[in-house]
Amino acid sequence: MMGDELDALLAEQVAYYRARAGEYDATSPLPGDDKSRAKLLDALQSFAPRGRVLELACGTGQWTTALAERASELTAVDASPEMLAIASTRVRNDRVRFVQSDIFAWRPDQRYDVVFFSAWLSHVPPQRFDRFWTLVADSLTETGRVFLIDERPAAAADEEVISDAAAPAVARPLSDGTRHRTVKVFYEPDELRDRLANLGWAVSAHPVGSRFFYATCRPSVE
Questions:
Q1: N or C, where is the chain less crowded by C-beta within 10 Å?
Q2: Cβ-count burial of 123 within 10 angstroms (0-12 exposed, 13-18 middle, 19+ buried)?
């Protein structure tokens, strides 16, 4: 059944990032991405993620450090204990709380002023898109904001696309020779803005080079 196939794909995605944790920082970002990352960091700093901040899919904490500089409290969630172990070593800050959980099953225990995620939305299958954004909305205060970073379709040139999976997916090798499937849905900024507008979000989306974009979002006020 399609639901079982999707669950299996998502389980494989988690297994991939657990297995990749030890080599993640050496392989991400790709060579040549440093300028784009600097621009993305500048945009995040201008956004000023203050107050209570939630980071979804924090990975090894590559963005957690920047968030912790401004946040009064920071909750960082990831499904991989291996990733969290690295992140908690990298980010030693009493204001940061690390939570291990499958994001599709996780529910917030408080409301946040900012929700942040990088390279995560592209791992949300289309079947879970609306539900995921309901989770984001449920995590925000009345004046809460979202900042997200992800990849544009041009980045697919560096991926091995799988055509017969339960959701758009790619195959990724690890240094030990194993291969794993992950969900990978690429968005152009305008495409994502229009899709989120249909769900009641006000979005400002900006390309950064040919590979990346960032977007800031708020629930629309009627």
A1: C
A2: buried
